[in-house]
Inverse folding.
């Protein structure tokens, strides 16, 4: 089966979406949705693997990233707009349904597609971010913070302090990432660290430190973590960051109230009937889903839920691709056997 990755563009009056694709054009469709501050190449280990099995695999550059549109207002990055981008992509592909797979900010996108457009979703999967809290805004996530790790007097927003920092100091936060995109990418894309269990995430200190990278507001020159990115991958990320800047990427964090209002319009009260998969990262201490209450709302919202844990940090699909692909493959083969490509 041909697993070569090809490049494509879908344009209309409201948006341009660049995407990568692999696998037979008539194969069962998987759409992979990346998060902050990634690109379609974040799924470089998944696209050829599932294409080789006979799936049609698509991974877009999301709004604000790479070669897709980068609109100039915060409200352009509300979930209602990004979901519309994805439905338009599905239409352009000539398909009624897909299995949607998201990570980080791609996760609320696929969860929102499932809850607002269930007829366009055969099944939905998320890496790291459970269904429920993020779709409903920042306040709901703060309610689920583990206060044994994040005392309220020291970390009012828990591990989500960095999200408050975007709201309070957006220009400063964005300038810090843009000061040296290559070093920013090196500093962000790091493997999981088992020694961090039970300790505050680095994201909890962003407000205290006056930014992600402290007073200098520029990423340090740390060694590349080859467990997550190759030199070629890193250069691709950095070039995209240099080209687009971080306004779009960071604006995803500026729409909590709009996103909460959008969540209220979900069909069936947001209950998902289709098969759903959540893969938690054991060493992701921001989206902490092993010991905290963050994933608890999901159990009551998903009627056909499968869960798994991978021993990785936040960049799961890049750090532990074999394990992630194995979980996804097993879920598709067992839970959606009729969706499996014909031999």
């Amino acid at each position: 089966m041909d697993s070569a990755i090809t490049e494509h563009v879908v344009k209309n009056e409201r948006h341009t979406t660049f995407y990568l694709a692999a696998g037979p054009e008539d194969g069962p469709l998987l759409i992979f949705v990346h998060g902050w501050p990634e690109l379609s190449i974040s799924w470089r280990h998944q696209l050829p693997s599932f294409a080789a099995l006979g799936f049609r695999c698509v991974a877009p550059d999301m709004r604000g990233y790479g070669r897709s549109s980068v609109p100039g207002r915060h409200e352009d990055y509300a979930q209602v707009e990004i979901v519309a981008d994805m439905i338009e992509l599905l239409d352009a592909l000539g398909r009624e349904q897909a299995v949607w797979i998201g990570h980080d900010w791609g996760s609320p996108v696929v969860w929102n597609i499932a809850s607002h457009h269930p007829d366009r979703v055969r099944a939905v999967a998320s890496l790291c971010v459970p269904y429920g809290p993020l779709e409903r805004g920042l306040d709901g996530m703060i309610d689920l913070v583990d206060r044994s790790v994040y005392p309220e007097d020291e970390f009012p927003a828990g591990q989500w302090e960095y999200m408050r920092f975007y709201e309070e100091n957006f220009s400063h936060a964005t300038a810090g990432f843009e000061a040296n995109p290559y070093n920013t990418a090196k500093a962000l894309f790091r493997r999981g660290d088992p020694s961090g269990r039970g300790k505050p995430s680095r994201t909890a200190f962003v407000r205290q430190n006056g930014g992600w990278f402290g007073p200098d507001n520029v990423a340090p020159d740390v060694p590349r973590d080859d467990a997550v990115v190759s030199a070629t991958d890193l250069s691709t990320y950095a070039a995209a960051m240099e080209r687009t800047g971080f306004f779009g990427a960071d604006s995803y964090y500026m729409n909590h109230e709009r996103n909460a209002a959008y969540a209220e319009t979900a069909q069936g009260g947001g209950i998902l009937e289709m098969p759903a998969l959540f893969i938690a990262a054991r060493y992701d201490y921001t989206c902490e889903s092993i010991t905290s209450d963050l994933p608890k709302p999901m159990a009551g919202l998903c009627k056909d839920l499968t869960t798994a844990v991978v021993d990785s940090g936040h960049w799961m699909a890049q750090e532990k691709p074999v394990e992630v692909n194995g979980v996804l493959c097993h879920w598709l083969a067992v839970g959606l056997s009729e969706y499996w490509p014909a031999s």
Notes: The mean pLDDT is 97. DSSP finds 13 helices and eight strands in the chain. The chain has one domain: 6-339. Residues 321-335 form the longest helix (15 residues).
